[in-house]
Design a protein that fits this description.
about 425 residues; mainly alpha; Growth Hormone, Chain: A; 17 helices; about 0% strand
Length: about 425
Amino acid sequence: MKKNEFNKTPFLRLIIAGGLGLGTSVAPLVLLMFGLIQFKIISIVGPERVTEVFGKASGIASMAIIILGPLGGIIADKTNLKFGRRRIWMILGSIGGAVSMYFLIKSDTINILITSWILAQFFYGMVSLSCYSIVPEQVEMTKFGKVSGIFGAAAPAFIMLGGMVMGVFAKATVSQKLGVITIVQLISGIIAALLVNDGYVEIIKKEKQRLNGIKNFYPSFKKYPEYTWALLTKLFVNMSNAGMTMLTLFYIARFHLGESEIFKLNGLTSMGIGVMISAGLVGGFLSDKIKKQKPFVMGAALITGLCLVAFAFSKNISWIIGGNFIFNFGFGLYGAVDNALVNRILPSKETISKDLSIMNVTTNISSSLTNFIAPMIIAFGSKLLKDDGYTFFFLCMASFSILSALAVIPIPEIEEEKSMDVETSTL
């Protein structure tokens, strides 16, 4: 056996480990954005300044991860330990995330809160990145859709479970809710790492020198145009998704709901994530079966836009619940098939984590942009339409869903890519 080879993880065990590690590392960051971080900010600055401070804090945190995310990917790719470069970061990321969440819980100033938030995103991001990286390293391409569907279902499943628990224990303090989430992730991250087979990766000197070149940091558009188009479609759909983080403040502005009522509503709507899970699983399996990915990704992006239009014109809570179900279906379908598409078009197996981290940082870029401009869009919309401003805001977010669907068009389909590879090899 060569030094850079190892016994791959049995398929079922890999699915369990990856799903557990991925789901529990993504869920805390998502749950933070749906009420927990907003009410933590309220406890520090008061309700009058929460919209302004939340927008700035989330924007700064997202901008920091734009730099730290790809840096973490490079570090992960260059980590050559016999214990395993993916396993070690599942464990270190879980420990670092737990420490960061502790300081976030204890924060009594906005600066401490932002710093802790940034570190939590970085460390939990290292856990999820390690889980994503084991797919192109250990799974056959013919199973990318299935695995992406299952992995795509893991995060919403844990988010749904967490949202339902917070809804049941709506009267518990924000600190208590954050504490439980942190402990669950720490235990799960360590278990996931122990389930995965990983190994020492020998990277030859020439490859190390290539990785160190700044000009090679981002894959060439001339050589790999599909990578950039895939990044753009992710960026645009994540802009739409980032708009959903304003729901808590939307509930307060339009429906005048209190903290306990909002957590109960979040608990109710989180059950719609079951639709997201089902859509992701079915979409992943179907895309593998018919060997088509683009129709699923484009259709799913347009469905998320439909949901945001429903939010824009919502007049009662029933519209909110229905809109959440629509969005969950579209985003679940998009996430599963798009992840399979991304795994297929990655430029090199030697830089998997780096390339995936650049791709995944679109979430932070979109979150940063959306949260920075959201207060301005809402204020402008309020003056333009003489309402709470959220009608115009959600319509703007829906337009990004349309752009996401359009960005998929230049990416070659599975069969088209195979044909191009054959033509290239015969030249």
